[in-house]
Each structure stands twice: as structure tokens, then as C-alpha cells.
Amino acid sequence: MNDFREHAGSFELDLDADPQRAWVALTQEMGDWWTADMTAAGGRMALEAQLGGRLFETTSDGGGILWATVGVLVPGQKVECFGELSPAFGGPARTWHSFEITPSVAGRSTLTYHDHVWGSVDEGLGATLLQGWKAILGGLQRHLAT
To answer: What pLDDT score does 1 carry?
Structure first.
């Protein structure tokens, strides 16, 4: 078993869309830009942008994984999700993810992502998770550039 540790990280992505369009892509089109190779079970991702909503993955056989639950929602601007990591995914641990979209220049926007994980995790998990989120949200960035 690993020692109790905390890891936190954040990054920003420039999005080729105004904040309203970026919000729709983040909250309603997740299954279109989140690639199966960046899921836990090869399924399709979705986000229910409402308090108590789910960030979840469904598989073609009717199974799935609950990644996190929406705990904070500022429509059109920010969603924060809280979840669990089982030992199979590097835990046991708790996670917090924050996605915030703000206006940038000339019809563009910025996505700021914050990640925090705490629990029985190894030293490298925080960096691994942050790299994974950069790859995942890079899909959103590419989706909006088309």
C-alpha cells in the first residue's frame, strides 16, 4: 500500500471558439472529442452539466464507470467534479477536477483545468494524471479547431 499523498496541478489551453461555443463542446459534445484510448474501459464519455450530474463512461455492453460527480456548476463558465480512484486506477484516493472557460482575445477562449488527488497514491501519479488530462483536453482543443 502507498503512503498518503496529495498531488495538485493545472494548465491552460487556448480554444479556437468563443466561451459559449467552448462550453457547449465541453458539456454537450464530450463523446465527440474524448477518444476511447483515453478512457478506462474503451467506452464513450459524457458529462451531465447539472448539480449532482455525472462525468461518466458507458460501454457498448451496457457497463460503465462513474468518473466523478458534479459538485459545483456555474453555467457557461465552470464545472467542478469530485470522484474516487479505485486501486485499479492508482488509488484508493479522492479526486477534484475543475474546468473553467473564460473569454480570451478576438472570439477565442481559455480553458483552465485544475486537478487535485489525495489518498494512498504513489509519487508519480499526479504527473501521470496531469499528462493524461492534457491529452484528453487536447481532444477538445482539436474539436474546436475544425
So the answer is: 65
